[in-house]
Write a structure and sequence with these properties.
Layout lengths: L11 E3 L4 E3 L1 H18 L8 E5 L4 H12 L3 E8 L3 H18 L3 E5 H5 L3 H8 L3 H19 L4 E3 L4 H13 L3 H4 L5 E2 L7 E3 L7 H11 L15 H15 L3 H12 L15 E2 L6 E2 L5 H10 L10 E4 L7 H4 L2
Parallel strand pairs: 3-4, 3-6, 4-5, 6-8
Antiparallel strand pairs: 1-2, 5-11, 7-8, 9-10
Helix pairs in contact: 1-9, 2-9, 5-6, 5-12, 7-10, 7-11
């Protein structure tokens, strides 16, 4: 098996490209694919201050590494969600990455700052864990970016993630979500710009990137994700991909090129946002969804909770509930 570019021994095959790559040219491919996504979708400007949401997993650490390699000013954001040993371990991987590269990692502790963890919050609010987790992270991402004067938030959603979400939304014809399933969500009042530079790369490729770059990451799935429908959607799409390489890419990027605009009027941009009476975040209600979650989980308002956050490394000079985030 030889590299398509240089004919030296290859370390990975990528069937949708019908090609094999050596270490050097595979890493270059990953950087090039991110650069292409950034350019094609106008994700980042060279002088943007970038905040990368990192979980300690392969995708978020890989995209942070690639953006640094491409020359962007990118800090990391880690949110401790209080999911037992899983959160402790994932936080350690994020800190190790930041320390090794001398970059800044902003940390937010959900329990210390808001008085509840995801297992407790999901039960109290009668939400499935992934719903409570997603709601909390979106709120805290926005707050950290705005408080830190960052221009854009980067998340590590890869091609597999986006294809699985698209599959689920299409199965149920959730047209409001389809209208917003874009690799870029523009900044609005109270909401920072959000981008997904890994939409041209798969989960397997990100795992290989981390191995070849010597990036240690948490391998275990979040224990709270058991039963998440998107895991089943990923498995179904993997079966399709096995028989027809490139199907996931064509499904997602074909949607972006030929269909997403057809749903652009379905995401409900006629709603009115107002400041949350408790935290000031934009919301369609008097109190935002996150503050309602805090109240249900702790029996108190968010303002009554203690606050604690810390940073490591050198400093640098949908439906209503979904739409709030």
């Amino acid at each position: 098996m030889k590299c398509r570019v240089c004919r030296e021994p290859a370390v990975i095959d990528i069937r949708r490209h019908n090609a094999n790559f050596c270490v050097e040219h595979f890493l270059r491919l990953c950087r090039d694919q991110v650069a292409k996504a950034v350019k094609d979708h106008d994700m980042l400007d060279p002088d943007d201050r970038v905040l990368v949401a990192v979980s300690g997993g392969k995708d978020s650490l890989a995209v942070w590494d690639i953006l640094l390699e491409l020359g962007y000013e990118a800090d990391g954001l880690y949110i401790g969600l209080g999911i037992g040993e899983y959160s402790n371990t994932s936080g350690d991987f994020a800190r190790t990455f930041a320390t090794a590269r001398g970059v800044r990692l902003v940390e937010v502790d959900l329990v210390a700052e808001h008085g509840f963890d995801i297992p407790t919050g999901s039960k109290a609010a009668k939400r499935v864990p992934c719903s409570a987790c997603g709601l909390s992270k979106r709120h805290l991402f926005d707050k950290a970016a705005l408080d830190g004067s960052y221009d854009v938030i980067v998340t590590g959603h890869n091609l597999d993630d986006e294809a699985a979400v698209l599959f689920g939304n299409t199965l149920r014809w959730q047209t409001d979500y389809l209208g917003r399933q874009l690799p870029v969500l523009a900044a609005r009042k109270g909401f920072p710009k959000k981008v997904k530079p890994l939409v041209r790369l798969t989960e397997r490729e990100m795992a290989a990137y981390c191995v070849l770059r010597g990036i240690d990451y948490i391998v275990d799935e979040c224990p709270m994700a058991k039963g998440n429908k998107h895991i089943a959607y990923k498995e179904a799409l993997n079966e399709v991909e096995l028989g027809s390489p490139g199907s996931k890419h064509d499904f997602y990027h074909g949607f972006l090129a030929r269909a997403v605009e057809k749903f652009a009027g379905d995401e409900g941009e006629d709603y009115v946002l107002q400041p949350c009476e408790t935290c000031g975040a934009p919301t369609t209600n008097e109190v935002c969804a996150f503050c309602r979650l805090v109240e249900r989980a702790t029996g108190s308002t968010p303002g009554e909770q203690g606050t604690m956050s810390r940073t490591e490394g050198p400093p640098r000079a949908r439906q209503k509930a979904s739409r709030e985030q």
